[in-house]
């Protein structure tokens, strides 16, 4: 192994772990350098007083990709963690108090949809059929492909995608073909937030997300989503990957057209034949590499939204609260305009509340509750004029107000402790430029071949993996990103 090429991976996020496993299984010497005391990146977790919190993703979507990626690493997903299906996936609550439980039970869906909009169920079935087509083609032609050059993307076989997966059609506008009721349009487009994107800007391609949730299910690993990180770390150690924690990289050493390794914050140099950066891509270009026009171009790219997250240890349970509750505002468009254009908190924000003990009682002490509330907000502006303490306090009150509509009026009296993250927290903890929780957003100009490449155009042994590279944000796509870049590294070392 000592004579094998040495790869240094900057960051132990999902993409970095995935790439490291693939490279080590091919016989390369791999070292992961991580600034934080534990792996996972944004897929993080912490415990306090017996309460366990996932700070990043709280549910597993696109399970078929999870299974395929674990299989590509020589492992079986369901043997590495205990999974349970979440059905209903979400309990949606609208401003007028009406509710919609998204479930794979088609009879229940028919009854609920017809009660909201008579005659809407056939439109729902047609929407799922479109989502099925978008999922199948999108995963095969876009997610699983590595576009190393323009001719890999602009091919005769890809031309039909312009009509097959509707990349030029606005997702929300596309909903008019299936529903008239604005609440139903919101119910099947809010998933665009997974990509840090407004449904008023997202392509209709993303109808694939509601489809995969209905068809393939939403799942929850016992012990929380951090079990995915634990499983990947186990595979990495088995493959011989070395980890160095609590070690921030100060800069990447470069000379002419190559990188020679990295210099840590304490001054120590680690030599490498290949450097693979899993840190937030805009941060890598702007903070770890010499200034150049490419680095400057990231100031003009579109970034995803951010979020204010509250983590509450509560001294009593709220059994009526489902595991995933989403409050959707009627002023749906204004919500996204406040977030995307004004970079602030909407006046009546949509928000999400997670109660993991509904699925896994070990996530909270007996007779108590673990709650996470996530309120989408704009990312940090360049002028630094946002008052995040004020915005945070307003967001907290919106959560209490929303929960009161469900009859939960005493939560403030039962919170034992609070931890919260704002865009400032995301930037500090994970080096996320502008505190944008999903990195670069997934508008049409930043998808597929147009998303930043996974290899530097000048430093030919410097590669990238993670949310802001192809195929994009999210745990399953980060694993795909790791596999794709690992294959490219192996191809180019050969």
Please describe what this structure looks like.
With 494 residues, the protein is an alpha/beta fold. The chain is built from 18 helices and 19 strands. It has helices at 14-25, 63-72, 77-80, 106-116, 121-143, 150-153, 161-164, 171-174, 182-187, 208-215, 226-239, 281-288, 293-297, 332-340, 388-404, 411-414, 423-430, 475-493, and strands spanning 6-10, 29-33, 45-48, 51-54, 83-86, 90-94, 99-102, 218-221, 242-244, 249-255, 258-264, 269-271, 274-277, 306-314, 324-328, 351-354, 369-377, 415-421, 462-464. A seven-stranded mixed beta sheet has the order 7-6-15-16-17-14-18. The two termini are 16 Å apart.
Structural class: alpha/beta
Uncertain regions: pLDDT < 50 for 5+ in a row?
none
Strand content: 15-25%
Average pLDDT figure: 95
Helix count equals 18
What is the quaternary state of this protein?
Answer: single chain
Largest sheet: 7 strands, mixed
Global geometry: globular
- Estimated helix fraction: 25-40%
> Can you list the strand order of the major beta sheet?
7-6-15-16-17-14-18
Distance between the termini: 16 Å
Gyration radius from CA atoms, angstroms: 22 Å
Q: What is the number of beta strands?
A: 19
